[in-house]
Amino acid sequence: xxxxxxxxxxxxxxxxxxxxxxxxxxxxxxxxxxxxxxxxxxxxxxxxxxxxxxxxxxxxxxxxxxxxxxxxxxxxxxxxxxxxxxxxxxxxxxxxxxxxxxxxxxxxxxxxxxxxxxxxxxxxxxxxxxxxxxxxxxxxxxxxxxxxxxxxxxxxxxxxxxxxxxxxxxxxxxxxxxxxxxxxxxxxxxxxxxxxxxxxxxxxxxxxxxxxxxxxxxxxxxxxxxxxxxxxxxxxxxxxxxxxxxxxxxxx
Length: 252
Known about the structure:
There is one protein chain. The protein is an alpha+beta fold. Helix content is 35%, strand content 17%. It contains six helices and ten strands; from the N terminus they run αβααββββαββαββαβ. The strands form two sheets. A five-stranded antiparallel β-sheet has the order 1-2-3-4-5, with helices on both faces. Strands 8-9-7-6-10 form a five-stranded mixed β-sheet, covered by helices on one side. β6 (153-158) and β7 (164-166) form a beta hairpin. α1 packs across α4. The longest helix is centred in the middle third of the chain and has 28 residues, at 116-143.
């Protein structure tokens, strides 16, 4: 159990660090009573170096989680090497399949001195760069060839089985997709619309366009090689330009 001073120091350090990092970060302090949250956090630490070695000998009794609006998270941990400061490590995204992590190097954490202002520069110039690169890779792998959407543009991709899949950037589009028959995969977050009934499928695609447009979200269809859309597909969804990159298989 950590005493009040130690707990307050970690929480305060995390608050300052979050405010100094680029973009927008918030900090959440996990006390020793939050056993389930600490256990889940331990499982999601994306590290095979300093943080992993520390956790092997010192299970978490407190931590702070720094979160960015796009889902990126960093964990601030106690340092058990007799020096002042903390360890900070990347946190793996929730609910992505193991295959997405194949051949993606762990963005191993780093040790921080007892100065959150200097540490913010260190995190931004080192850990965050490697973490953002790894995040982009695993998220791309999880899409399985589906082009990621943007907040103002949904990309719908025809699948070999005749279904249509998309990975919206936020819940605004997701709500509309579900209302028109799309089903979300809880692991990847991908929404799919079955192609068993092409008339129902075409009607759904026609109807989601205006509803998304009302939210300022455009739509586009991506046609893989050898696949053409039904003639009843909405003309307002132009194909994505040729040359779209697709994910390759990776080993974790």
